[in-house]
């Protein structure tokens, strides 16, 4: 995959976090020497980038905004929820390390899928809990995730994510370097707890 194709892939999978309207996004790529380009892209948007898992010819990265994730982790109900999955300390570094271990165990068929990742990806706690309790069924609406509460707000957020994706992909397809891609001012930045 060339640099331009990689930019399009990053824009497609991570536009909401690059635009500042979502705390994190996953990026799944086939193996390749992308580390420098990924770090360059993350730096261009003042986001962090970490490898969650690699194997079977693929790598799973997470692009995230530390400040927004810290907000999520400071919420008492989120802390209680994460503690039920073994997240004993709520610092971002420790949460990310635990998430990496749980994702690795799942990918190596030694554990269940870490559905708590939804909270880290900025999904509302009620939707993450609803998904787990309903085993992915009985949802009100499905878009960027399965919605179990506040469908109207979810639809609005999904529309903002889609707008960001469309805009970022278009810029990437036009060959703009990430350092020259600035998100639109029309996005409403918000973290939902």
Main sheet characteristics: 3 strands, antiparallel
- Our count of domains comes out at 1
Name the beta content range: 5-15%
Task: Please give the share of residues in helix.
Answer: 40-55%
Descriptive report:
The protein has a 3-stranded antiparallel sheet, with helices on both faces. The C terminus is likely disordered. A hairpin with a 3-residue loop joins strand 4 and strand 5. It has one domain. It is built from 8 helices and 5 strands, in the order αβαββαααααββα. It has 193 residues and is of the alpha+beta class. Helix 1 packs parallel to helix 2 and helix 1 runs antiparallel to helix 8.
Strand and helix map with partners:
Blueprint lengths: L2 H16 L5 E7 L4 H10 L3 E8 L2 E7 L1 H9 L1 H8 L8 H16 L9 H4 L4 H10 L6 E2 L3 E2 L3 H23 L20
Antiparallel strand pairs: 1-3, 2-3, 4-5
Helix pairs in contact: 1-2, 1-8
